[in-house]
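Appendix C: a fully annotated inverse folding record. The material below is reproduced so that readers can follow the format used throughout the book. The structure is listed first as tokens, followed by the designed sequence.
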């Protein structure tokens, strides 16, 4: 029982760090209510800023990608209990994000600046993007994604059940609404700077490449069911015509 309670406490701490990093991300990307953001921070020259920012983004991409691969999960299963694995992944990802927020170097060279109705529309799209991000996690299983579900099963001494394939809301429209939300949030800004553009380009490239690996893993997990889903539902851009029935992995 002590070990089970320790796993639950660890999962709760990991979730708390995840919440802090997620909420800070909203302010960081949008330059809202945070002391250091994508365009607000200590002075640095452009070459130093580009080098540091790229290093931070690559560090996040490497950790996020390697730890998500099935081969790593199989190796990891020999070291950590299953109930701790997702929490550890979430905790490390969140800590690296906080490091990125702390060490990010703004590059305030203007790329575009919108005003009036256009600015308000972009701000609205920014808010819509983050709303889609958070809503999408609850449409599948927010507490499984964050590691809390696994810890509660461990507390009861129960086996963690396999995830099923189903059809939750936005997953009928696009296969990856979570990533669509991120893309909207990263690009929708009335004041695009060189630093923000670097962030948006690199994260977009990572998302597009990462989705190829994720799709391959989902096909391996769900087989024909997911292949049929791919044929019916677009990856990121909703179809403006028709509407097929679809399912989504949980």
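Designed amino acids, in order:
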């Amino acid at each position: 029982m002590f070990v089970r309670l320790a796993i639950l406490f660890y999962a709760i701490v990991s979730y708390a760090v995840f919440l802090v990093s997620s909420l800070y991300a909203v302010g960081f990307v949008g330059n809202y209510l945070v002391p250091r953001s994508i365009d607000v921070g200590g002075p640095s020259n452009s070459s130093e800023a580009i080098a540091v920012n790229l290093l931070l983004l690559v560090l996040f991409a490497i950790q996020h990608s390697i730890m998500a691969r099935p081969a790593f999960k199989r190796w990891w299963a020999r070291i950590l209990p299953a109930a701790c694995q997702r929490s550890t992944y979430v905790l490390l990802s969140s800590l690296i994000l906080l490091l990125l927020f702390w060490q990010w170097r703004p590059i305030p060279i203007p790329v575009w600046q919108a005003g009036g109705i256009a600015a308000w529309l972009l701000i609205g799209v920014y808010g819509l993007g983050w709303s889609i991000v958070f809503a999408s996690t609850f449409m599948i299983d927010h507490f499984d994604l964050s590691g809390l579900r696994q810890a509660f099963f461990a507390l009861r001494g129960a086996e963690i059940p396999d995830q099923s394939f189903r059809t939750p809301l936005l997953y009928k429209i696009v296969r990856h609404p979570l990533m669509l939300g991120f893309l909207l949030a990263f690009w929708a800004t009335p004041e695009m700077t060189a630093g923000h553009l670097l962030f948006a380009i690199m994260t977009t490239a990572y998302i597009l490449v990462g989705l190829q690996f994720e799709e391959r893993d989902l096909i391996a997990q769900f087989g024909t069911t997911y292949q049929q889903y791919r044929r019916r539902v677009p990856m990121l851009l909703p179809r403006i015509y028709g509407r097929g029935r679809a399912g989504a992995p949980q």
